[in-house]
Amino acid sequence: MAFEEKHILNRLYIVAGCMFFFALAISVKLMNIQFVHGEQYRELAKENTTKNFIIPANRGNVYADDGSLLATSVPKYDIRFDAVTVTSEDFNENLKPLSEGLSKMFGKPVSYYQEMFRKARADKNRYQLVVKNLGYSNYIKVKNLPLFRKGPYKGGLIVEQRTVREHPIGLIAQRTVGDEAFDRPGYYAVGLEGAFNDLLTGKEGHRLKQKIAQGQWKPISDDNEIEPQDGYDIVSTINVNIQDIAHHALLKQLEYYEAEHGSVIVMEVATGEIKAVSNLGRTSSGTYYEKLNYAIGESHEPGSTFKVMAMMAALEDKVIDTSTVIDTGNGVKVFYGRKIYDSHRGGYGKISAAKALEVSSNIGLATIINDNYSKNPNKFIDRLKSWNLTEKTGVKIKGEGKPMIPQPGDKKWSKNALPSMAYGYNLRLTPLQTLTFYNAIANNGVMVKPRFIKEVRAWNEKVTTYDTKVINPKICSDKTLSEIKEIMKNIVKRGTGKSLYSPDFSMAGKTGTAQTEYWMPDWKSNRRYISSFAGFFPAENPKYSCIVIIHKPSTKKGFYGADVSGPVFKRIAQKIFTDSQIIDSVEDVEKTDPVIEKDYEQYYAKLQQTAKIIPNVTGMAGMDAVSLLENLGLKVQVVGNGTVSKQSLKSGEILKKGQQIILNLS
Fold first, then answer.
1. Mean pLDDT of 71-95
2. Could you tell me the pTM of the whole model?
3. What is the reported pLDDT for 613?
4. Rounded to the nearest 10 degrees, what angle do helices 362-373 and 307-316 cross at?
5. How far apart are CA 497 and CA 107, in angstroms?
6. What are 196-221's pLDDT values in tens digits?
7. What percentage of the chain has pLDDT greater than the value 70?
8. Sequential DSSP letters for 533-595
9. What is the CATH number that goes with domain 243-581?
10. Which of the two residues, 502 and 37, has the higher pLDDT score?
11. What integer pLDDT is reported at residue 59 of this predicted model?
12. pLDDT at 47
């Protein structure tokens, strides 16, 4: 018995000893955690429960030349509710007034919000969505509603802020202004947004948040730990009015001709400032939108608009003058085994060099360049190089297409290269590169770099100003300039662009019609063209230069540059003439317009008639019709603008003074 008791006692001692050493080991481990690795574990715990979240800085604004907003960052707020942190007393006291306030702001029933909050409370939801995409003013109102005004802990308010990029003028010039990449939030690569991203991007801020249930995070404080710094603003050269004119003029023509895509650029002659760029591509449903930046990025064979460069090279090198006689024959001529055709059936015969450009004779220009440069083609190429036509313009907007002008030794060079280049084939230029050259003609030979930005601002203070940069101070002699300008005026007056001529305002330019994809086997059965028009206005003292390019118009409706692209140019010029006072004087204020005089006599005769019946005013100018009817004692209500298309009282009815008549104008 004594032996068994002693054995049990020994076993107890062993167990007690083990427990002692185990407790000692735990104490040592705790001391090690507390004092040796304590800081490390405290930081780890902190990292798991709190985290610094990045607050993106607001991007700077992009402005038009008159201060109108083209792109701006707008803060948006999502409101959520932590149903756990609020006390029962505060919850029950504020539930109804909070729900009433939300109902008044957002239109949903009070019961909807009460049920939502009660359910969140019952489910212990710490991240209940209340409302999304609030603007700043509504965010402030929600933040000050009952319960929410108590803040994140007592009131359970969770505010999530983000910034959204908006374009106040809509989709017009969207590709030029630039937009956020749809698959990379916060990334800007195209347009002004991409070109000046470093300036527009500010410095990020940081905000400390605490981890709550289900991997969700809640701000510890309303105050940002590090406030973000906004990016700089940029003032572009885009003019909203001219941009709107260019966009709608292009859109109308693309829709009518069912074209694949097109672009327009309007440049201010003296400064190189780009006042408008429109790029419209066709969708499968037949609508158009700013698809790609064709104006800057798309290199293509320019066709007949390049004939101006070819003619100028020959004039400047003095190998011809404008009166040199060129034999274009019967409209077909063979160059090195390949036939070149003129669009005019039967040909133009023997004509002057100036006339060859006016009528856009392929044979005429090919003959001029081949006869005078075939023995030394580098002379012609060097002239083009001196005009910077082999180089990009260097605009900051990303994606500028590379010009391609072959020279002897290149794979694309052959004996036919030279005559082909003379009328705009076997080379490639972008619309902007072509316009830069035409703008130099308008600018008395001074070639300026195209410019999309005027200045950089910070808090409405100028940081940097961008001035006009001269690429080439004089592309050619005054004599050559004078001659080419005169020919370009005559192209519109009596040449290929004569359908565009108007005595009310002057334009100078060159039509272009180029075959495209002609190397494809189906071209003869499905012909595709690029229609273009490049020039400047007013012709005598140019203020703006402009280029219009339309790709693959429906050949059933037309494809010549004068018919397809020229009217867009004319419409833009007309609208700018109308909206801006380019012309300050009227030559003969006393001159009588016979049409106006005849209309007045007819109107006066009607007015003198003894009014017994309602007159027929359909087709009359609205203002004249109103004056006539009111003088007869009728009350006139007008709907619309223009001429009278419909009148509510039938003509021939007995007239009663004081009657109301409604005129529909269109």
1. 90
2. 0.72
3. 78
4. 40
5. 60
6. 888 888 787 777 777 776 566 666 66
7. 85
8. EEEEESSSS--EEEEEEEES--TTT---HHHHTHHHHHHHHHHHHHHS------S-TTPPPHH
9. 3.40.710.10
10. 502
11. 82
12. 52
d(CA 171, CA 201): 22
Q: Burial of 598 by CB count in 10 Å (0-12 exposed, 13-18 middle, 19+ buried)?
A: exposed
pLDDT of residue 217: 64
Tokens of residue 614, six digits: 């309602």
Please write the tens of the pLDDT for every residue from 102-123. 999 999 999 999 999 999 999 9
Nearest-5° Cα angle at 509, 317 to 259: 125
- Tell me the domain boundaries of the chain: 1-51, 56-235, 243-581, 609-665
Q: Among the CATH numbers 3.40.50.300, 3.40.50.280, 3.30.10.20, 1.10.443.10, which is that of 609-665?
A: 3.30.10.20
> Which sign does the torsion angle of CA 313, 319, 323, 328 carry?
negative
Question: Distance (Å, rounded) from C-alpha 34 to C-alpha 277?
Answer: 68
For tokens 């104490």, name the residue.
27
Contacts of 278 (CB under 8 A, 6+ apart): 172, 173, 243, 246, 247, 250, 251, 263, 264, 290, 295
Q: What's the half-sphere exposure (Cβ side, CA atoms, 13 Å) at 352?
A: 8
DSSP H helices in 258-306: 294-297
C-alpha to C-alpha distance for 293 and 299, rounded to whole angstroms: 11
* Residue that the structure tokens 């609205």 belong to: 622
User: Tokens 């470093």 belong to which residue?
Assistant: 198
pLDDT value at 450 more than 90: yes
The structure tokens listed for 574 are 């007309």
For the ranges 99-113, 168-182, 369-383, 530-544, the lowest mean pLDDT is seen at 168-182
Mean pLDDT computed over 320-347? 93
Mean of pLDDT over the chain:
86
Identify whether the C-beta of residue 207 lies closer than 8 Å to the C-beta of residue 161.
no
3-state DSSP assignment of residue 496 = coil
Whose tokens are 């101006």? That residue is 308
C-alpha distances (whole Å) from 563 to each of 86, 496, 559, 619 are 72, 10, 7, 29
Supply the angle between the helices 362-373 and 377-386 in degrees, to the nearest 10. 110
Q: Same fold for the domain at 56-235 and the one at 609-665?
A: no
Task: Give Cα separations from 172 to 175, 247, 253, 277, 371 (angstroms).
Answer: 8, 7, 16, 9, 47
Name the packing angle between helices 478-493 and 307-316 (round to 10°).
140
How many angstroms separate the CA atoms of 354 and 360, rounded?
10
**Domain 56-235 of CATH type 3.30.450.20:** no
Give the residue with greater pLDDT, 199 vs 545: 545
Q: How far is CA 530 from CA 359, 392, 418, 501, in A?
A: 18, 21, 21, 22
Residue 249 phi/psi, 5° resolution? -65, -45
End-to-end Cα distance, the chain: 126
Strands (E), 212-311: 217-219, 233-236, 261-268, 274-282, 288-289
How many Cβ atoms are within 10 Å of 277's Cβ, its own excluded? 30
Each residue's pLDDT tens digit, 255-287: 999 999 999 999 999 999 999 999 999 998 899
Question: What's the confidence (pLDDT) of residue 404?
Answer: 96
Query: What is the structure's pLDDT at 586?
Result: 40
**Peptide linkage before 419 cis (omega within 30 of 0):** no
